[in-house]
Amino acid sequence: MIRFIFKAMYEYITFPFRVLEYLIDNLIDLFIMEEYPIDFSLISDVEIDGVDTRDYPDFCDAFIARCEYMGREATDRELDLINENSDFVYDQVINYIY
User: Fold this and answer.
1) In 3-state terms, what secondary structure has residue 47?
2) Residue 82's closest CA among 38, 23, 17, 29?
3) What is this structure's pTM?
4) pLDDT at residue number 73
């Protein structure tokens, strides 16, 4: 019985912190990614990875591994947003190959 009471108290005390942690980890990240448009004209020094020439002309496995955005190294979130734009990635792959 005492174990049940301690477990219930633990759940009651830690629940708000777990909810807050969830909000910080998921909802805020989603909000930032949705509301944070990338200006593709500010991207430079692009490094491409995953290029397989047997996959010509699609290069569907290629992605931007590193780049500079606004004069600094792009963060992981920014790289995710950049790589979601398949047209931009494809153009960069073609520039990289030719």
Assistant:
1) strand
2) 38
3) 0.61
4) 92
Residue 56: how many CA atoms within 13 Å on its side-chain side? 5
Burial of 89 (0-12, 13-18, 19+ CB in 10 A): buried
Q: Which amino acid is at 93?
A: V
Give pairs for 27-31: CB < 8 Å, separation 24+.
29/77
Instruction: Note the pLDDT tens digit of each residue in 13-49.
Output: 666 777 667 766 666 556 655 556 888 999 999 999 9
SS3 48: strand
Main-chain phi, psi angles of 70, to 5 degrees: 60, 40
Contact 62, 50 (CB under 8 A): yes
| d(C-alpha 62, C-alpha 94), whole Å | 10
- Cβ atoms 26, 54 nearer than 8 A: no
